[in-house]
Design goal:
mainly alpha, 5 helices
């Protein structure tokens, strides 16, 4: 291990002020077109106009998907439609589960493992 102090004098920008200023000018000249483009793109109106097409395309795709999915669901025939007042039966919930949900007492383990067939 070396206990000597590290010499940073070569990294001191004030050691050669002319070279330092020249480096700053070169970096500024190289970054000028990029910064000008970012200034233009940073405006709210530019950002909104850039997002116009993707948002419109997503909206059109969503509407097409909605109508496409809705078109697959055919209305049931009148003969197949069953009128019922019990919502749980209409949703296909088993009668045993419906009874548990409507009562104030929780089901026992045996009722859960071996539900009654009605």
């Amino acid at each position: 291990m070396d206990n000597d102090a590290i010499d940073f004098t070569d990294l001191n920008p004030e050691g050669d002020a002319q070279r330092f200023e020249l480096a700053i000018d070169r970096i500024g000249a190289a970054a000028a077109p990029i910064l000008a483009r970012r200034r233009l793109q940073g405006s709210v109106w530019w950002q909104l106009s850039a997002w116009r097409k993707p948002v419109f395309a997503m909206g059109v795709a969503s509407v097409l998907l909605l109508f496409g999915v809705a078109g697959f669901g055919a209305a049931p025939d009148e003969e197949e439609a069953v009128a019922t007042d019990d919502l749980s039966l209409a949703l296909g919930v088993p009668a045993a589960v419906s009874a548990w949900a409507s009562s104030d007492t929780p089901p026992t383990a045996a009722q859960i493992l071996y539900p009654e067939e009605e």
